[in-house]
């Protein structure tokens, strides 16, 4: 993508930005390196309110630290937040779900445990609603996934029940790092941060690969005819990668404006010379059609 068309915001010291549009208002949630999540609001994606706490670790929380990657969906008149946290009993990263009456919260955990535990670390939960079927895409984290002696993160999907709070059946492997741009980090290797958009009967899986705190972090996509795949990775990957002043673009979402324009929202390193956890939110308009994602 042409970096000249990318809007760089003043939202820094975050990661994994997710934007929900409700009417004319955009709500931003992100990893913010605390014991919970904040919410900011905007009407133009550029100018944002001061952060207000949307979710705080409480007595019902299964997690005690590493609260990452919140995503919020409107459902049955309420709002559900799926997020990652580290379980206090064994330090395993898992996905939880909390509920609120308003998009700005406060969000309260639905139960005192994670959504599921398949016996390995799971992060970056993303909900796809497809007619009457619901799915959760997530990353099987490299912290507890070793393949041929190497740590790897793989993307899986599993069906959800109608409440979007419980999984149904067994997960399906969707994607793993197997292309050169995805394996440049050597060990570990990542496929993470899944986000799925449906357009024209096709499913577009956007995902990140490479080390989040280094210049190898990049954004790509794959396309399928069915929600559970098989997904074919785009030949033009990576879609976004380090170039010029843009360092480590990744972990995106897509938000559709009132005029129908799709925007890819993602983070980059705030200081390209010293990449790390401090990241800045960016966005750019995109087109998703005919099996291709391109800059608009």
Protein described:
- This protein is mainly beta and 296 residues long.
- The protein has a single domain (3-295), classed as Glycosyl hydrolase domain, family 43 (Tachylectin-2, Chain A, 5 Propeller), CATH 2.115.10.20.
- Helices cover 1% and strands 52% of the residues.
- The protein contains one helix and 23 strands.
- The chain has one helix spanning 180-183; strands at residues 7-8, 15-22, 25-31, 36-42, 52-56, 63-75, 78-87, 93-100, 108-109, 122-130, 133-140, 146-147, 150-151, 154-160, 167-175, 192-199, 202-209, 218-224, 232-233, 250-256, 262-269, 279-289, 292-295.
- The strands form six sheets. Strands 1, 20, 21, 22 and 23 form a five-stranded antiparallel β-sheet that branches. Strands 2-3-4-5 form a four-stranded antiparallel β-sheet, with no helix packed on it. It has a four-stranded antiparallel β-sheet with strand order 6-7-8-9, with no helix packed on it.
- The longest helix has 4 residues, at 180-183.
- The model has no long low-confidence stretch (mean pLDDT 97).
Main features:
296 residues; mainly beta; single chain; 1% helix; 5-stranded antiparallel beta sheet; 1 helix; 4-stranded antiparallel beta sheet
Secondary structure layout plus pairing:
Elements: E1 7-8, E2 15-22, E3 25-31, E4 36-42, E5 52-56, E6 63-75, E7 78-87, E8 93-100, E9 108-109, E10 122-130, E11 133-140, E12 146-147, E13 150-151, E14 154-160, E15 167-175, H1 180-183, E16 192-199, E17 202-209, E18 218-224, E19 232-233, E20 250-256, E21 262-269, E22 279-289, E23 292-295
Antiparallel strand pairs: 1-22, 2-3, 3-4, 4-5, 6-7, 7-8, 8-9, 10-11, 11-14, 12-13, 14-15, 16-17, 17-18, 18-19, 20-21, 21-22, 22-23
């Amino acid at each position: 993508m042409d970096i000249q068309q990318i809007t760089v915001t003043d939202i820094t010291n975050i990661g994994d930005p997710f934007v929900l549009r409700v009417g004319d208002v955009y709500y931003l949630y992100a990893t913010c390196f605390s014991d919970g999540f904040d919410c900011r609001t905007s009407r133009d994606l550029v100018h944002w309110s001061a952060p207000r706490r949307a979710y705080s670790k409480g007595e019902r929380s299964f997690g005690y630290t590493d609260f990452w990657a919140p995503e919020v969906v409107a459902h049955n008149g309420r709002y559900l937040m799926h997020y990652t946290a580290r379980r206090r009993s064994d330090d395993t990263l898992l996905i939880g779900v909390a509920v609120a009456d308003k998009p700005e919260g406060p969000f309260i955990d639905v139960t005192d445990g994670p959504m599921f535990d398949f016996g390995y670390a799971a992060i970056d939960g993303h909900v796809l609603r497809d007619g009457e079927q619901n799915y959760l895409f997530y990353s099987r984290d490299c912290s507890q996934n070793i393949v041929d002696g190497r740590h790897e993160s793989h993307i899986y999907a599993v069906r959800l029940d109608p409440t979007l709070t419980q999984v149904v059946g067994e997960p399906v492997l969707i994607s793993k790092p197997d292309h050169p741009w995805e394996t440049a980090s050597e060990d570990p290797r990542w496929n993470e941060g899944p986000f799925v958009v449906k357009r024209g009967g096709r499913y577009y899986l956007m995902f990140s690969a490479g080390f989040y705190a280094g210049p190898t972090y990049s954004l790509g996509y794959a396309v399928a005819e069915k929600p559970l795949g098989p997904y074919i990775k785009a030949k033009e990957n990576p879609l976004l990668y380090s170039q010029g002043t843009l360092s480590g673009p990744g972990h995106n979402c897509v938000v559709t404006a009132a005029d129908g324009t799709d925007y890819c929202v993602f983070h980059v390193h705030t200081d390209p010379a010293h990449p790390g956890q401090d990241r800045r939110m960016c966005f750019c308009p995109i087109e998703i059609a005919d099996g291709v994602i391109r800059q608009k």
